[in-house]
## 1
Amino acid sequence: MNKTIKKIFLFLTITLLALNLTFAQNTNNNSTSKGKIVIVVLDVSGSIKKQFPDITKIIDRAINKNRLNVGDYFVLIPFGDSALPMYSGQLMREEDKTSISNTLKAMKADNDFTDIGTAIKTALNYIVDLKSDDYNLYEPLVLFITDGDITTPTSSEFHGQNVDQIFNDPLIGNKYLYDGWYYVGIGKNLHDLPLIAEKSGREDYLLRIEDLDQLEFMLDDWISKIPESQPIEQGEVLFNNFKLKSYKLKSGKNSKVISSAEDLTFDILNTYKRTPVNVEFKAAKATFQSDDRSSTIQIKLSPETGIIQVSPMHTKTTTCGFNPNSEIKGKGILKIHFVANINGLDKQFDEAFDIDGKTASELLFDKIFWPLIIILILIVIIVSWTIIKKFLPIKVRMEVVGIRTEKQRPVSIKLKKRVEFGSRPGCPFKLDQLLFSPVVGQIQRINANKWQIIPRDSSAFEDGNKKIEYTLGSDLKLKTKEDSIVTIKFKPAKK
């Protein structure tokens, strides 16, 4: 009984260890980092049959064994009557290269047609999909090999089309997807492939092999000299500075906008330092939902059509038609959605703004209301200060005209206040005691601008005790004890 239990225990232990190893291996495989995209697009029409074994042998050695690493994604696309991948997947381990070698050995060149358009589009679709799946650190390597011009079956979407017509396809016509493409033309009578290389911007990366006796050497040597895939420059494309008919939309802040706006403008910012970008809008829409959720307005957006080119580290402004199905009024949230193709990859852009829709007159009023209020307040302050200043105490200095005397100190005089002038010691306005009595008179401030002189020594004034209306700065004549005339004046003290 004990022996049986020991055997069962040993069996369970071995099973658990095996499961752990399998799990660990799967975990390691699944965590393989994503590397390069390597695609071989190979003509399998019957005309290339004689050279085909040599070509697949070179591809196996020069690409599979010498160029591929764990983490890379390899695609093998034979094309002729169609273009269906024979191998597609990420290399999880070195042993995966054996599977690729076996696939290459099993391939045959026996098709009747050379559907180049479908082959190019299939490869481009892989590039777009894989870049979207984070294979975007390196430029892809694409090796395209053919010995013939375009011939297509009736089932092909490019049936009857020449090179110019094929490149009218939006995907095929996007030059920014051909970085890392290399073309090989085998034979003397090739017309389409040089034109394809030129239209894709890769005319300098075309190898023509006319001497078939030299095919193996030339192809092997040329592939070995293809540089390693270069890292793709990291950057992004941003949409910002949104405006509705010149009224700026600000994130996180309620923006007042014109309810009858018919256009939306915004900037396309390219943050790449070296790479220009092509932007093409695929879809656009917007909605406005009121704050109380009582209404939702659908808005038709009509972005600029065609390809918009933006240079590295530059901004380009674009205008988008803005047509709501009813007038936007009141506060709510404006949501904007774009789908744009950026250098061959579709990306989504979503923005949301708190807005307050108003008519043009309401916006004009809002725009000038606070500046107008501030101006009115300033006017009131200035006028008030001007008025108040007149009733504030005024510093007045007495001056004896034509006689050098001690400098008089200024005296602050309030409304209704009387200030004496004479020869008495301590008199606010001091006169010569040899010439004048202790108190000659008083100067009184009646109101803001009105003054009067009140005599106290009637002998010093021509009119005796009669009060005299006085203007600051004017002369006031006084008789001295010696019956001479001395002129004085009261004037505002200089600040």
## 2
Amino acid sequence: MENFALLFQGFATAFSPVNLLAALAGAFMGIVVGAMPGIGSLAGCSLLLPLTFKMNPTTGIIMLAGVYYGNMYGGAFSAILLNIPGDAPAVMTALDGYAMTKKRKAGKALLAANLASFIGGTIGILILTALAPTLAAVGLKFGPAEMVSLLLLAFCSIGWMMGDDPKYGLISTCIGALLAMIGMDPVNGQLRFSGGNINLYSGLTFIPVVIGMFGFAQVIEMVTNRQNFSFLGGEKLTIKGSLLTKEEVKGVLPNAIRSGFMGTFIGILPGAGATIASFISYMTGKKVSKKGKEFGEGVVEGIACSEAANNSAAAGAFAPLLSLGLPGSGTAAVLLGGLLMWGLQPGPQLFTNQSDFCWGLIASMYIGNVICVLIAVAVIPFLTKILKVPAGIMAPIVMTLCVVGAYAANNNIFDVYVMIISGFAGYYLNKNKYPIAPLLLAFVLTSTLEQQMSQAFRVNGGSASIFFTRPISLGFLIAMVLMIVVPMITKKVSAKKAAEKTE
């Protein structure tokens, strides 16, 4: 209760006119940056950081934090309407969001995303308020062995996304893993599959690959099927028409709440971040939700899992950042740089020595979360202008967004070539019923898994015993085995019962 008493003191700081304006400006810029493919919260915060040099530290960090969590809201816009994820965490949102757009339910998809983002963000901030130092301590217990076991568990979850024919999903997963291995081996420093191209020494960048397989593949579909292609046939988006039914709200709430807790926990882990949080939460929802089998076909439950997770992960990342000075993601590292720039030393004493700063920041996150959801809901009617544009005009616009987004990832023209090749590959895979989601998930997880596994073996002198002697790691491995074995047993029992009924 002491933390919440301090929080109310923080609201006095957050509600000062200059800090309130900073929260509003940061939230608005975050939404805009998030909706623009290829930029993301990392680039947005990096570009804004120099502008905060002469600001009061509390005001500056409030603005940067607003960009961070506002980005999570904005990423859903282009993912749902154009099938171009604005940022990596919005990849899973695109699976159900764009499918709902094609069903003429874009307004409901946007409102579901906003509602889930607000719920997830609120859960993350509440947990941060109550347990910031404790959460940071939990994050420290996750070393390389625990991260490897968690990622292996996630890899086993890919099977939930493979559709009716597992062989197609397995092939997509292998392709994703192979693409992730391009570049320098993190263990020995050996170059792999680079073909002598210096642009591939650091591997493929995720954003151009995603934009290509989602966005540019969509452009190819528009061009090759322009006679039959239509976004919404002139559907008009209004707040009233976007309201969720009672049944849809019942679908959003449990998935958003569960993913909010999961995302906060994953957000505090070193190197995990909002992208992995959205992937894992989406897969968990697909397994446990009543409409899990319909995930990917256009249901609000899938959107809720992804959006709640990435917003809560953004809030969770502040726990180790403030309490220990350990950034859990690239964006958190930029925020850490800002703290050091202002002469603030993150650590256990920060909440004591700089109480006004810490609690003013956390209080501003509550305010910023409300500002974000109000802005996001208010712009829904204006998005109808995008959907009314004919496919013949929309194709070059989307292509331009894809090129700009891919180039903006690293300011490198090579990424544009990667995006184009990925687009043709994605179009081919879609046409031949190979799922894209397992490929992207494997691409995201493989490089992290490889790095963490090499660290785990180095720490333990090359022995694999570290994975079985650490309780958390062992728990994840047991869960992984159960995940593989239980469905097999269930399937055999069901087949036996069916045979007995037939007899």
## 3
Amino acid sequence: MVSIFLRSLIYNVLFYLMLVFWVMVGIPTYLMPRSGILTVARYWARSSIWLMRVVCNTKVEYRGLEKIPHGPLIVASKHQSMWETFALLQFFDQPLFIFKRELKWIPLFGWYLIKANMIGVDRRAGGRSLLAMARRAGEEVRRGRQLIIFPEGTRAAVDAPPNYKTGIAQIYADCGVTCLPVALNSGLFWPRRTFMRYPGTLVVEFLDPLPPGLSRREFIVRVSAVIEDATNRLVEAARREQAQLFGRVPGSASAKA
């Protein structure tokens, strides 16, 4: 366990140093088209994933890449960790994220969000702000972008009950495009609210796309069912692997005893 602690500490220090490096590399992209900063962001994502493999022995397996459609798309992903907020963007040529408006005030990093034409939302503004966000998201997707969204709205612990928000159904209805569900088990390797990083095989699985035109109710039922079923399967497989590595699952009751 001491070794995992030290590896986690080393990774986090290097991760943020690498982030600073890529932020500085990206400065010239202010004078370039949006594709410039998106290219830098992909290199940041790939280098961070590589670093996690080298330092923490966390391998990553991607399944179902052949199921990713081209063109305008909604990507609805399970959200267990910070990891997927940067890892998923590498698979799409025009990724679009919705972020808390306060992030745009972070020097350089926030300016990159604006340059990349991401969508900031003021959660305190209530329903009117959310409707404006949904309309803008629909406009951007219809222009050919791929909206990467987390239907639960925030990171959830691995065993937390699912809580899918109705906002994604509104966006789906406004966009009128295919939705690609994504399941993963990242919360077992990059848990929220801790700097610990665990070894094993982190799996991202792109599932069968859902066609446009479903009713909002049917969409929510189907997207939540397929994501949760696949996520539960991936989590259980990862826990078996961790049990073999550690004799228990990190963070479980037996680990705390």
## 4
Amino acid sequence: MKTVFIDGSAGTTGLRIYERLEGREDIQLIRLSEEVRKDAAARKEAINRADIVFLCLPDAAAVEAVSLCENSETVIIDTSTAHRTNPDWTYGFPELGNNREKIRTASRIANPGCHASGFIALIQPLVSHGLLSSDAFLTCFSLTGYSGGGKKMIAEYEGEKLPALYKAPRQYGLAQNHKHLPEMAAVCGLVNAPAFSPIVADFYSGMEVSVPLFAKYISGSLEDIKAVYRDVYKKGLVQFCEETDEGGFLSAAAYAGRDDMEVTVMGNADRILLTARFDNLGKGASGAAIQNMNIVMGVPEDTGLTVKGE
């Protein structure tokens, strides 16, 4: 049995991890009372006593928490942005390359960002297989449910009176400095970060990340892209979907409440649309964190998770 501590269990991601682990018989949760959950000494003791620690904290607090760890056997899974481009940390997306084996023996794992997970799932395989140049200029559109904004945004959308402007989708990250951009470029091996348009809408959870491409800039065809995805996504929580039919539409809420991801390729001989659909709280956050923990523990990756077919 593994002992697990969630530092930051009051936040949206921390609460979801806690709810999923609470009933597992192979996990013993270390709990801190409300009075001491922010106390540095209490947190330090819990971090060093645990086999596995989830950090569900703002970036600065996550860095501080890592500095409290003196136990070389403690595995830390950080859900913040702080360590995602740090070469001393293993990037926690097991479906790509040899990441799964790295995660299995890692002591420091950086959990991917939600928007970044979809973009990376679509683009990294194409760059690594030579279909897309590393110096390509790309655009990315990402629709997300409001739970991705945390407690404050959830309260705004679920308040007694929803502001009129909240009833339609709202684009943000307008200055093109979104915190996921460095991760999106670095993990995919891109020279240039994409022009990124994240959009939040009035639904609780779900995410749809789309990358449009002109076929003439691809070293191959639409069918070649499909072949790469079929080969890459044979194992894990990402699956390539040959065909998606929702009456000519594609809903961002299709994977709400799930922990897996669907990757699709659509379009024609001239213009191609790559799309990843998943839950921003699932494969985009807590589900991915638990998948990484499962790999470290040597149990099936989908243990305690909700995936296709359930």
